[in-house]
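Whether sequence alone determines local backbone shape is best considered at the level of individual chains. When preparing material for the folding task, we compiled for one chain both its residues and its backbone structure tokens. The sequence in question and its structure tokens are set out directly beneath this paragraph.
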Amino acid sequence: MGNTRLTYRRRNPYNTRSNKVRVVKTPGGKLQYQQLKKRGSPPKCGDCGIKLPGIPALRPREYAKISRPKKTVQRAYGGSRCANCVKDRVVRAFLIEEQKIVKKVLKESQQKKR
């Protein structure tokens, strides 16, 4: 094999996170660096922090290029919270409302006793 030493093709000469490369062989038989893009991190649930299923992991600017249905799921808080956290929120809100009703009924029964 000929020359295996390679040089970066862009101006940044350091092996940083933003300057990752892969070695490829060109049709002419030479080895050359190919710049790699950073991996996107998946969106996470705002409450529990797990990866949101059904939403692709892209770089932030790439979300502007995909359509709305690919960025969300059809549910309340879709694309922001996971299903379990939404369920917990709904149950918590329901129980709080029930508690208010119970307090109101107890207060009325206390008023009648007097």
The chain is about 30% helix and 10% strand.
